[in-house]
Specification:
Elements lengths: L1 H19 E20 L2 E4 L4 E4 L6 E11 L2 E10 L16 E8 L2 E9 L1 H9 L9 H6 L9 E9 L6 E8 L12 E12 L2 E12 L2 E14 L4 E11 L4 E13 L4 E13 L2 E16 L4 E14 L5 E13 L1
Length: about 325
């Protein structure tokens, strides 16, 4: 009888511990047969031929994330995420967890996270891009050609999220730079803000970021975007702008797109365009369009066929054209 009671007590404690703390292993593998061709002034400069590519559509990665119940509604959370190349088995970065590495607390006050994290603008780019800011994204090709090349992830960042209120959520990010004694022009810091309202089929939001060199704002950028799911189609759109004080350059652009479900399969189409100016004079235009068909084999696995054509056309100089093709398989675990 006593042994039975002890066994029941041990099982109850184990169950309580499991409920209070959890760690999950997860990942994604994207492998494709692909090609990438670049022409400058009509002359081919890049053409490796048929390739087996990793993460051409969505980055291959594995990670750990977990949460612990600290009581009174307070939780400790963390996420560590590393990218890899499935085509040759190598890491996609020399960093141990270059995609994400943060720890934080969440509760009635919202959530606070410290470490390497996605930027405020990157988060909104992803939500309002037809392709989710993936490798075949027209917006990714175009927006990164201008005055503000979004880094995506920010080191040494403090990210605070307000509690969600009736579909409204907002956050603020600050990264001190950690180089106060650096040379002139290198002592950087970054601040970012984001706000989103998502309710049913509607998502609308905005984000802003500023990177500062020696206290003076050197680059600033903003994004305003939306999506609406009509059921038969889902529409996407966003506007963006940026300026770089150091180079006296500005850019402004947009992206529009649609995702059409055909039962389980889907077709996505997107177009993006951006104009770049220096000292108030137009210097170049970047544009791109992309198509992707996806067919799910299960809840975690799908095949895709994708195409991207991008052009950067300077007022003076040679035009650059890039074409990417891919036929791939994605598995999530």
């Amino acid at each position: 009888m006593n042994k039975t009671l002890v066994s029941i007590a041990i099982m109850a404690c184990a169950g309580t511990a499991t409920a209070q703390s959890s760690v999950n292993l997860y990942g994604r593998i994207d492998a494709s047969i692909a090609s990438q061709k670049t022409e400058v002034g009509g002359i081919t400069t890049v053409n490796p031929g048929v390739m087996i590519r990793s993460g051409a559509h969505t980055g291959s990665r594995w990670g750990l994330k977990g949460s612990e119940d600290l009581g009174a509604g307070l939780r400790a959370n963390f996420q560590l995420e590393q990218g890899f190349n499935v085509d040759d088995g190598t890491a996609s970065s020399a960093r141990q967890f270059h995609r994400q590495a943060w720890v934080g607390l969440s509760g009635a006050f919202g959530a606070l996270q410290l470490g390497r994290q996605y930027s405020t603008i990157y988060n909104l780019y992803t939500e309002h891009d037809t392709f989710g800011w993936s490798g075949y994204s027209a917006a990714d090709y175009v927006f990164n050609a201008g005055a503000y090349a979004n880094s995506g992830r920010i080191d040494n960042a403090v990210y605070y999220f307000l509690p969600s209120m009736g579909g409204f959520r907002a956050g603020a990010l600050w990264a001190p730079g950690e180089n106060k004694n650096g040379a002139a022009g290198t002592r950087t810091s970054l601040v970012g803000l984001q706000a989103v309202y998502a309710d049913g089929p509607l998502n609308i939001g905005a984000a802003w970021e500023a990177q500062r060199f020696n206290v003076i704002a050197d680059t600033t950028a903003w994004e305003l975007g939306s999506s609406y799911d009509f059921g038969a189609v889902k529409l996407y759109g966003q506007l963006e702008g940026a300026k770089n004080d150091a180079t006296n350059s500005k850019d402004s652009g947009y992206q529009i797109g649609v995702k059409i479900p055909f039962g389980a399969p889907s077709l996505s189409v997107s177009y993006a365009r951006e104009n770049m100016k220096t000292a108030g004079t137009k210097v170049s235009t970047a544009s791109a369009y992309a198509l992707m068909a996806q067919y799910p084999l299960s809840k975690r696995t799908y095949v895709y066929a994708a195409y991207l054509r991008g052009t950067t056309d300077p007022v003076v100089g040679a035009t650059t054209r890039q074409q990417n093709y891919g036929l791939g398989l994605v598995h999530n675990f």
